[in-house]
Structures are given as C-alpha cells and as structure tokens.
Design brief:
Structural class: alpha/beta
Number of strands: 7
Strand content: 5-15%
Largest sheet: 7 strands, parallel
CATH superfamily: NAD(P)-binding Rossmann-like Domain
Order of helices and strands: HHEHEHEHEHHEHEHE
Number of helices: 9
CATH architecture: 3-Layer(aba) Sandwich
Number of domains: 1
Helix content: 25-40%
Bound molecules: NADP nicotinamide-adenine-dinucleotide phosphate
Shape: globular
Distance between the termini: 28 Å
Length: about 270
C-alpha cells in the first residue's frame, strides 16, 4: 500500500471515544466530530513544523489540541482555529511542570491518540561555538528539548493509554545522532546536539516503561526544514514545513508496537543512533 493510501485509510479510522470525550471537554473552537480519526496534542504549534502539523491534522478531520506558549500572539494559529472547529488552542510552556500537570488535569477525560512533542529550541549556534560557549543557554535548551518531552509523556500517559492509537512521538533531530555527527572540526550547537541525544535516550526509556500499557514511543527527525529555527540558512537539501509534515504524518500513521523505541528520519528510514 502506498504512503498516501496508508495515510488515507488511517485517517478514516473511527475513534469515537477520543472525539466524544474531547467534545465533552470542549471549549470555544472545539467540534464534536464523531467520525474523527483521532485526537492529537501538539506542543509548540505557534509556528514552523508544529503549526503545519496542526493545520494538516485539522484538515484531515482530527481533533487537534494545539498548544502554544502564547496563543494570543500566534496569529497564524489563531486563524487556523477560526477556520477549523476541530482545533482547540491551549496555552502551554513545556518548561513549566505545573502548567503541564494543570493541562493534563484539564484534559483528564480526553483520550489522546498521538502526543506530539514538537516544541524545541536550538539555543543559537553562535552561543554554542566551542571556545566561546555561552553557558547560560544550556538550561533553556535542556529544559525545553529534554525535560519538556519527558514531563509531557509522563503527565499524558493516562490520556494516551486511554486512546485507540496510543502513540507518543517526539520531534528529535539527526543532529542528536552519535553516528551522523559531521567529521568537520567546526561543528557547533554542542548543547542542542546533546539535548537531542538526551531526548532520544529519554524516549527509549519511556518506550520500555510504557510498553506494558500498549503505548508506542518513537522519535522523528523532520529533515532540515526552512523555519525560524534555521534562521537565514538556505541549503539545497532543505525542505519546507509542508514537505516535512507531509512525509512525517504517514510514518506516524503506520506506527505499531514493532516500532516502539525507534528513531525515524522524515524519509521513513530508521536513523542511526
Ligand atoms: N527546522 C529544522 O531544520 C529542524 C531540524 C531538526 C529538528 N527540528 C526540531 O523540530 C521542532 C520544531 O522546530 P521548528 O523548525 O518548527 O522551529 P521553530 O519554527 O523555531 O518553532 C519552534 C516552536 O517551539 C515552540 N517553543 C519553543 N520553546 C517552547 C517552550 N518552552 N514551550 C512551548 N513551546 C515552545 C515555539 O513557540 P514560540 O512561538 O512561543 O517561540 C515554536 O512554536 C523542534 O523540536 C526542533 O528541534 C527542526
């Protein structure tokens, strides 16, 4: 079956439980689509890859819980919420443990089929050049890219376990691969690379810990994507958020327990550690 066909068939699968529970917990901007394919919660949906995930899942009829640090300032996300009644906005800073617990409590009766840990920061390449490292960015990078996804996975385990699809997917990076690190002596972003390696290790732990609950935990590299994240960098291998998400959604759709603990590239290959 082609990737598109796989995506379409998964998209049509009915997840009445998630849709009904989300409708019960609904606020403004939430629709009760009984034939929704499932519920996805996305962190960092204000822009870039997270925004595109929110758009594509909403267009495909999913119940989308799009979280952002400051939804009021996220104009594109606001417009998306206006256009799609099946998309609701929630405020969430993934470094705020209490806020994560509060959102998990607020959504207590909502099964979440796909928890998408997307929010992430680079910390800025200039601040991570060996010889002139700015050590003040370490905590921000580690809190956002490692602690946030761990806490999200822990807090939302009951919601994911109560869903049909039971998937936790964290957007990692091949920058975190010990195998793929460039042999060049000028490689930078030491904290960012360490954070994505640590994220991978954390999620392998989660995969093992949550296997008994039937939860599939994977990591996903989105490719080199032209978002604010890469600043003005433009390279021939770069892809758009639209291309990245279009390639990644079918990978997420076909995940099974066989995949738990795996680290995928946007091309669908397993990435080397
Ligand atoms: N772009 C690439 O080439 C690339 C490559 C490999 C991996 N990735 C990964 O892909 C993910 C998304 O990156 P992107 O390219 O879409 O970057 P982006 O355009 O810079 O967007 C990052 C998103 O993360 C959010 N965010 C940052 N800190 C947060 C926090 N503490 N709590 C909640 N949200 C927070 C931002 O929200 P605000 O608007 O509030 O800042 C924004 O929505 C990241 O995990 C990144 O590491 C990207």
């Amino acid at each position: 079956m082609s990737e598109q066909a796989t995506r379409n068939s998964t998209t049509r699968r009915t997840v009445l439980q998630g849709a009904a529970a989300l409708a019960l917990a609904s606020g403004p901007g939430t629709a009760s689509a009984a034939d929704s394919p499932g519920t996805v919660l996305i962190t960092g949906a204000s822009r870039g890859i997270g925004l595109e995930f929110a758009k594509r899942y909403a267009e495909d009829g999913w119940q989308v819980i799009a979280t952002a640090r400051d939804p009021k300032k996220a104009e594109a996300l606001q417009a998306l919420a206006k256009a799609h009644k099946n998309l609701r906005l929630e405020t969430l800073d993934v470094t705020d443990i209490k806020a994560i617990d509060a959102l998990a409590a607020k959504l207590k009766d909502v099964p979440i089929d796909v928890l998408l840990n997307n929010a992430g920061i680079s910390g800025g390449a200039e601040k991570q050049k060996i010889g002139s490292i700015d050590y003040s960015v370490f905590d921000d990078v580690m809190h956002t890219n490692v602690l946030g996804p761990i806490k999200m996975a822990e807090a939302f385990t009951p919601h994911v376990a109560a869903s049909k699809q039971k998937k936790i997917v964290s957007i990692s990076s091949t920058e975190g691969s010990l195998t793929l690190i460039s042999p060049r002596p000028d490689v930078n972003s030491i904290f960012y690379r360490a954070s994505k390696s640590a994220l991978n290790m954390s999620m392998i732990n989660m995969a093992k810990a949550l296997k008994d609950k039937g939860i599939i935990v994977t990591m996903q590299s989105p490719g080199l994507v032209s978002t604010d994240f890469v600043g003005s960098l433009r390279l021939p291998i770069m892809i758009t958020p639209q291309q990245s998400v279009a390639m990644t959604m079918p990978i997420i759709a076909r995940l099974t327990m066989e995949d738990t603990g795996k680290y995928y590239r946007h091309t669908g290959e397993v990435a080397p550690w």
